[in-house]
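Class, look over these structure tokens:
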Amino acid sequence: MSIYLSVLLDFIFGDPKGFPHPIRLIGKLISLLEKVFYRGNKRIMGFVFLFAVLAVVGGFLALLLWLCSFWMPLYWIVSIYLMYTALAWRSLKKETGYVFSAIEKGNIPKARRMTSYVVGRDTENLNEEEMMKACIETIGENTVDGVIAPLLYMMIGWFFGLPVIFVYLYKTINTLDSMVGYKNERYADFGYASAKLDDIVNWVPARIGSLLMLVAGFICRCDVKNGWKIFRRDRFRHTSPNSAQSESVYAGLLGLQLGGTHYYFGKPVEKPTIGDALREPTLADYKRSCNIMDVTVLLMMAIFSVIYACWLIF
């Protein structure tokens, strides 16, 4: 089945190097259309811009898949490739792993540079502890954004016969938020619609993912009691209604305090802390974080397998 093959390919290969990545192409489209629509009333034009990007992406994919459907082997190859590249399971582990590896070797300038590839905050002055926490926050949040949510939308789309369209509309919204969803002078109004829609489409995946992470923490022999405690207490300690959901689970399971004040574009942004500082992060937390993510993904696939089996039987 296409979803299983997509997950397997992502687990084995990660992002395809040397191939045109669809998400990067969507990013270029967003940059191009931003130049067209960034004018007039920024709040209104932000809504127009959002729907224009979604219409172009959805329309292009519908046309592409329709053309490929005249030769079914090509249709399945293209569909699986597109779904596989919508996932970030292996790449998330690999990119954060580079940071921990650089810290382990004492190469702090490289660690800061690699950290800048996985977080949006300024990294020039981060110390080892801050970089490790940044990566753990990234794994916690992007286990949802990069794996669980895309899988959920693939699965929903599968029941309508449109898994590629569903997952890429989600990924487009997610990419829009990462590019224009900032609360700064340029994007506070123009990116408002994109940021709000991203909050909406991530509401269910963030909560499903967080509960699965708690189960994964139990399987990985983490402190589930503390994970549940911090999840209930801190899951809304973020400007986004979703980001702290999974981050709070990771903070509790690992006994770390995440969040706090970070710098973006040279300006401090004060964020609430998440979790209790029961201990300082260590290099071993990278493996623990990845283990939680791996088991969470496998649990998600197990749930889908049960639903799929029931669908076939009934």
In short: The first strand starts at residue 258 and ends at 259. The CA atoms of residues 11 and 90 lie 5 Å apart.
